[in-house]
Design goal:
The protein is 17% helix and 25% strand. By secondary structure, it is of the alpha+beta class. The protein folds into two domains: 58 residues; 192 residues, no CATH class. Strands 11-12-13-15-14 form a five-stranded mixed beta barrel. β8 and β9 form a beta hairpin. It is globular. The two termini are 16 Å apart.
């Protein structure tokens, strides 16, 4: 299990992700570990620390109800947990991670191929100044720390399920010459704010709903933030097989873009970098 409910405060029980719980001080873990429940069937759960033979820290239970989803996980859930564990391992062991914006995303209609330009970098033709971005070639020396490469889909899954990626110091490359600390690059949509000189970030979260014309996506985490998609609307709808506004309700999203305040400064808009679809990924609720 990746989550467990702690009933230390019986009136206000707290749900911990395994990535959050394992980082607690030892004394805190020892105090809380006897008060854990399965988040689905509410039966007694346990915490197991990472082992020397490579097993990751996890929650578990020997008391699951027979119909509990945690006891009988779906194939999708099993694959998701595998992806999350893989990203977590990268955070712990890799020296850096390259975001593969050119990673092919299967289309749902016909046999068309995604239009992705692997040579174009997220910052091509743009100038900006930010303390988070550092110009440096990717490590090529064999003695350099291990470099991993991942697409947006797996990164989104790990972020939505509470991995430590978003708060880590792992170097993330968005191009061959620009790298960022993960904790400075990945921004939950609830924390979106305009940046110095419009420097981009990787914004992520979930979609509450879209307008009837499907020109705007509205994040569930903050009603004051909007994602205008009209400039690439048709391509986005085709790419992710979106036919009605209800298709995006509950979808997870991650996009490389910039945050801009509205003229009255009451709303924030997140604009996709260059209106280029290779910098956005949606995971519809039905797929999660």
């Amino acid at each position: 299990m990746l989550d467990a409910i702690c009933t230390f405060d019986e009136e206000n029980p707290k749900t911990y992700s395994i990535f959050e719980f394992k980082l607690l001080p030892e004394a805190e873990i020892d105090k809380l570990r006897y008060l854990l429940l399965c988040p689905v069937c509410k039966q007694k759960a346990y915490f197991r620390r990472a082992s020397k033979d490579g097993k990751q820290a996890c929650f578990g239970s020997r008391y699951h109800d027979l119909d509990c989803e945690e006891f009988n996980p779906s194939a999708r859930k099993t694959e998701e947990e595998k992806q999350i564990a893989e990203v977590e391992q990268i955070v712990l062991e890799a020296g850096s991670l390259v975001i593969d914006f050119s990673k092919k995303i299967p289309l749902n209609k016909g046999n068309q191929k995604p239009v992705l330009d692997a040579q174009k970098t997220p910052l091509e033709g743009r100038e900006y100044s930010t303390k988070d971005a550092v110009k440096k070639d990717l490590p090529v020396n064999e003695n350099e720390p291990k470099v991993s490469k991942q697409g947006l889909a797996k990164l989104l899954t790990s972020l939505l399920r509470g991995s430590s990626l978003a708060i880590s110091d792992l170097w993330i490359y968005t191009s061959e010459t620009h790298k960022w600390r993960a904790k400075n690059l990945f921004v939950n949509i609830a924390d979106a704010q305009p940046t110095e000189n419009g420097a981009p970030r990787m914004y992520w979260g979930t979609i509450s709903h879209a307008d009837k014309t499907l020109n705007w996506l509205n994040p569930a985490e903050d009603r004051s933030v909007g994602l205008p998609i009209s400039k690439y609307r048709e391509q986005l709808l085709e790419r992710f097989d979106i036919n009605t506004a209800s298709d995006v309700e509950g979808a997870g999203f991650i996009l490389f873009g910039k945050c801009v305040l509205s003229k009255d400064k009451k709303r924030k808009y997140i604009y996709l970098w260059g209106n280029d679809l290779q910098y956005i990924y949606l995971s519809k609720a039905a797929e999660a």
